[in-house]
Write a structure and sequence with these properties.
The complex is a heterodimer of chains A (92) and B (611).
Chain A: H1 3-18, H2 39-53, H3 59-62, H4 68-81
Helix pairs in contact in A: 1-2
Chain B: H1 13-21, H2 28-42, E1 53-60, H3 65-77, E2 81-86, H4 92-95, H5 99-104, E3 108-112, H6 115-123, H7 127-130, H8 133-148, E4 154-158, H9 179-197, E5 200-202, H10 204-211, H11 213-216, H12 219-225, H13 234-248, E6 255-258, H14 269-276, H15 283-301, E7 304-310, H16 313-322, E8 333-339, H17 343-354, E9 361-364, H18 368-377, H19 393-399, H20 410-429, H21 435-441, E10 445-449, H22 456-465, E11 469-470, H23 478-486, E12 491-500, E13 503-516, E14 519-527, H24 536-551, E15 555-560, H25 572-575, E16 579-583, E17 589-594, E18 607-610
Parallel strand pairs in B: 1-2, 1-3, 3-4, 4-5, 6-7, 6-9, 7-8, 10-18, 14-15
Antiparallel strand pairs in B: 10-12, 11-14, 12-13, 13-14, 15-17, 16-17
Helix pairs in contact in B: 2-3, 3-13, 8-9, 22-23
Classes of the chains: A mainly alpha (92), B alpha/beta (611).
Chain lengths: 92, 611
């Protein structure tokens, strides 16, 4: 799956969760740019991302996703390796 | 004006497949459903909407923002205008004292608890103290319920999802200290608390077991946000709240209307013949047989069964009379219709014959075409969109919680027999020239008593279920009835039962009245549809007047509050000789009656007994 494909899917999920039909999904789009992106909708969105892409996002990553770019990179990394790139304590 | 909308079925098909194929990822359709409900709650109708209001408070020990929204959405879907009060985070006991909660005047309070909080407590205790954690916890819930209970209010508590960790492996249930074993026994105690206090249960233990614990829980959601489960399971918890509220307000399935071909057996009796239909011990035939057993168990619970089939009557009866594997017999059915008329017409006839609303019917038919036709004529009937594979039907009905009930009384179980007696009564009616003569011939005996403990479930059921002859539709629960009965100084209660020479109707009417200054106020008066037109209400009024005379009270106050279904009693108080004293544009009418001026209406009882 290319980054463009991922962005395309994310666009659908973001519109559904954040209810902003005019949302312009670009890598720099951050939580602070979207009024409905709060700690609760963040989890709603990630649950849909997990389901859509067949991945499981580790707990430490959930809080470190600040913008769409972070999320795309995480999806790519989880899809390719099954692992997140930056395990905070060096990983297993 | 229709108040209650038909149920929207949850598209939880994904769950069944997740259970069979392993819960690797959340089902997309569940999440879509979850998001749809969240957004529905955000676009709730304004206060001008004509639908009935319901005030619900949620006091939780976990994050309940989403749960509250979903409860709101479920109530909107059931045709209510919900007002929600969300208690402060993890402060249930404090909330029981909160002035804001009192001011909100909730009619319904849900105490939402989760297994994670019990775990925290358990882990913080010494091994000896852990032995008592379930009793201590259950006692706290009991105290909270008692602090929040009052007449006219319903409290709901929940069972707990069974935890994943066991500490002692398969020995855990044998150990008194394992967390898993403690939760199993705590769930029993919670059921006991509900039974003693009259609270209702949200059975989360069942919900979690149905989807599987490893699917239900998500520790990341708990760690980060104190969410008790994966978000897309919250709609099920909210659905239970919505179902209980609509059941308490009288929306219950009373009769199952069954198709025959490809519903009770596989194939078509007309084409395939007795030997050709699938019904038996193995394969597809086993599934049909098991479905019949399931239906029979529902009849044992008190639901009526009716047949509505497109067939010739003789052909339709054949399997009931001759097939060795039929579980259901003709005598199990209150109405048996097989003809070639449109089913919608037959279904209207069934409702009329049984004297129940179309919305109390649940239609089980394998044909999407027939379901569509019936639904277009009777949008209020409950018509599950059954899955193609008949093996999944029981799952589907249970998953959507179609058969919610709030009490089980012996009348429930006797109901099916009653309708058989009723058809004998009707046959006899045709022989008499006028109704008076007929009523006298029935040799009816009416007896009235206060709400004694043994009859409370039936009284509460009558008050929560009767829709047509119900003057104020207050929906007093068992708990409320119990408190009326306990306070004879302030309340007068009458439970009325009726017998005639064909059989015993059991308790068919109930009145709750309050002794106020200088008057007796009729808070509620309901008569079961099974006892209409027999003069029961005349006798009840006689009894009330008699009580007033004894207490030297000069006036009786009554009120009619209109609903979509109680139009038949709009003129009740006028007919009884009451004077209208106030009315408003909502249709609400208040009356009073001077006790001395009251003249008894004629009644045709052989005897009226007051215990």
């Amino acid at each position: 799956m290319t980054e463009a494909d991922i962005l395309h899917e994310l666009d659908r999920i973001f519109k559904q969760v954040f209810r902003e039909p005019t949302l312009d999904l670009k890598p720099s789009l951050a939580a602070s740019d979207v009024s409905t992106w709060d700690s609760i909708t963040h989890l709603d969105m990630l649950a849909m991302v997990e389901s859509q892409f067949g991945i499981r996002i580790p707990t430490w990553e959930i809080a470190s996703i600040h913008n769409v770019g972070d999320l795309v990179a995480l999806i790519v990394s989880l899809q390719n390796t099954g692992k997140a790139a930056n395990i905070p304590w060096g990983g297993p | 004006m229709l108040h209650i909308r038909p149920r929207r079925e949850s598209s939880y098909a994904g769950v069944a497949s997740a259970i069979r194929n392993g819960p690797a990822v959340d089902s997309v359709s569940d999440l879509d459903e979850y998001m749809r409900l969240v957004h529905l709650a955000e676009t709730s109708p304004g206060s001008s909407s004509p639908v009935p209001e319901v005030r619900v408070a949620v006091l939780g020990d976990h994050a309940t923002q989403r749960l509250c929204k979903l409860i709101k959405a479920c109530l909107i879907e059931r045709g209510y205008r919900p007002l929600l009060y969300e208690g402060s985070f993890d402060a249930i006991s404090l909330e029981t004292l909160a002035p804001a909660l009192k001011e909100f005047q909730p009619e319904f309070i849900y105490i939402a608890t989760c297994v994670q909080r019990v775990r925290e407590r358990y882990l913080g205790l010494t091994p000896e103290a852990r032995l008592r954690v379930s009793e201590v916890y259950a006692e706290e819930i009991r105290q909270q319920v008692l602090a929040l209970s009052k007449p006219g209010r319903v409290v709901m508590i929940n069972t707990l999802a069974l935890p994943i960790e066991r500490q002692y492996g398969n020995y855990s249930l044998l150990s008194e200290q394992s967390f898993y074993g403690i939760i199993v026994s705590l769930n029993r105690l919670i059921v006991e608390v509900a039974r003693q206090t009259g609270a209702f249960l949200n059975d989360i233990m069942y919900l979690a077991a149905r989807v599987g614990g490893s699917n239900f829980f998500d520790d990341r959601f708990w760690s980060l946000s104190k969410l008790m489960c994966r978000n897309h399971h919250l709609p099920r918890i909210a659905q239970n709240v919505g179902d209980l509220i609509s059941t308490l307000r009288g929306r219950v399935v009373k009769c199952l209307v069954l198709d025959l071909d490809n519903t009770l057996w596989g194939g078509q009796i007309g084409d395939d013949g007795l030997e050709g239909i699938a019904l038996g011990d193995t394969g597809v035939g086993e599934a049909f047989r098991r479905f019949q057993q399931y239906l029979l168990s529902l009849r044992d619970r008190g639901l009526l069964l009716a047949v509505c089939s497109k067939n010739d009557l003789e052909t339709a009866r054949l399997p009931f009379r001759q097939h060795p594997h039929m579980v259901l017999k003709e005598e199990h059915f209150s109405v048996f219709i097989a003809n070639w008329k449109p089913k919608a017409e037959n279904i209207a006839f069934i409702a009329k014959t049984l004297n129940i609303g179309i919305d109390s019917l649940m239609v089980i038919d394998d044909s999407p075409f027939e379901r569509g036709e019936i639904r277009s004529r009777h949008p209020m009937a409950q018509i599950p969109e059954l899955p193609a594979d008949n093996l999944d039907w029981i799952w589907h009905i249970e998953e959507n919680n179609y058969l919610e009930t709030t009490a089980l009384s012996s009348t429930d179980r006797d109901r099916a027999t009653f309708y058989q007696q009723e058809s004998e009564r009707e046959a006899e009616f045709l022989q008499y020239d006028n109704i008076e003569q007929y009523l006298r011939s029935l040799e009816m005996v009416l007896s009235a008593r206060t709400f004694d403990r043994d009859i409370l479930p039936r009284v509460a059921q009558l008050l929560t279920r009767s829709n047509q002859f119900n003057l104020r539709t207050q929906r007093y629960t068992l708990k409320a009835c119990e408190s009326f009965a306990a306070d004879v100084e302030h309340y007068l209660t009458l439970a009325v039962s009726l017998k005639d020479r064909f059989g015993d109707y059991g308790i068919i009417a109930a009145a709750c009245c309050e002794w106020q200054e200088e008057q007796l106020a009729i808070l509620e008066l309901a008569v079961s549809c099974r006892a209409f037109k027999r003069g029961v209400e005349n006798a009840i009024l006689d009894l009330l007047v008699e009580s007033c005379k004894r207490r030297k009270i000069a006036r009786i106050w009554g009120e009619y509050l209109p609903t979509a279904k109680n139009g038949m009693v709009r003129g009740f108080y006028e007919e009884m000789g009451f004077t209208l004293i106030d009315a408003d544009s909502s249709g609400r009418r208040q009356y009073q009656l001077s006790v001395i001026e009251y003249t008894s209406r004629p009644n045709f009882f052989l005897e009226v007994v007051r215990d």
